[in-house]
Amino acid sequence: YYENIFIDVKSVNDWTTPTSISNVINTPSHDACVGISADGSQLFIYKTDNGGDIYVSHLLGSIWGEPKSLGPNINSEAWEPCMSISADGKTIFFISNRKGGIGGNDIYMSKKQQNGEFGPAILLSDKINTKENEFSPFIHPDGKTLYFSSKGYNSMGSYDIFSCIINPETGEITSAPVNVGYPINTTGDDINFVWSADNNRAYFSSVREEGYGEEDIYMLERENASETYLSLLKGRIFDCSTNEPIRASITISDNETHEPLGTYYSNSFTGKYLVVLPGGVSYNLTAEAPGFGYHIKNINLPAGAKFTEMNDTICLPGIVPGTILTLQSVQFEGPKITEASHPELDRLVQMMFTNSSMKISINVYVYGESGDEQQNTKLTEENATAVKNYLVSKGIDSKRLFYKGYGKSKPITSNDPTSKNKSSNRIVEIEVLK
Known about the structure:
Structural class: mainly beta
Oligomer: single chain
Number of helices: 2
Largest sheet: 5 strands, antiparallel
Helix content: under 10%
Shape: elongated
Strand content: 35-45%
């Protein structure tokens, strides 16, 4: 009667036959799936070591890695049976019956620290925790709606599912818990509730008369979903030359504040990636991998936009002589680079430090610009010089840098100019010489 974890794939019409997920994960003792990261790369597992602790396994290509304990800030000598991680991977909510709580099983939260470990457990207040048991927290991809099961509120019987609004930075409950009601809640146990990011589907466990035995998995669908202001960015990252998938890091930051939202990774076996982004923000996305050039793009999500899915493929060029990297975000005001250009140029600086023998040529040319060609050439020469001087100011040896302004004489080859910023009408290409 020990638990094991199974995996199933949905075909066009129905689910296939479940199979054991991995002999690395499943053991002769209890192994239960209690959470998964938004991008599907981390599996959180309950194991009965030390009374019941939470572990994490990372997806390495197509293979799940050895489960590792979440550490002493999360796991204790008490019971930690379930948890949920936010879409940005920065916050987890988990259950523990450790000493010092409000009731039996209480909800705690923990923030990820700079070293990648989760920090000290924070007990949520009595606005959500009761003297009875709470169970199975789930933080919605919107980052603020927390679902959980409880025996301590006005329920239909045993565990019912509730929702509230929480400040994920402080843990403050900003709206009182509300029973999600029938037909989700019944007189039996209703637990392990999760929503899809678009709010169209929910999955949960329930004990019902028509079930196959004890807690079964149920799904509900609705056509008129409540609005969720999120975007799902997904795609594939691959080698431009071979079309082979790449394990690349994907760093996303706020274009206005430059604050990082998080770093994500594409799967080395498929090249696929998935990121959930809140609306109302302009983002900078940078994809990079060792031995390859980087790719930068801007993603603008207007405030009030409903749920959208965006599909994008990114190819990264290998760093070999002749490689052309087109800088996407470098802009000019006359001969000078703008402050908005600094993040991408800083990324180029980092790439040159990583590849210490690399030499490049900074090539600048214009498109769609009228006027005297001699003046155009002079302006692009000044632009190329400005880029070179910025790289030198950041510590790059000038002997590794060559530059040239082409005016309008250089044909557009590597990128469609319609994707460039029209405010400057300049294209900056980095050509790898060595």
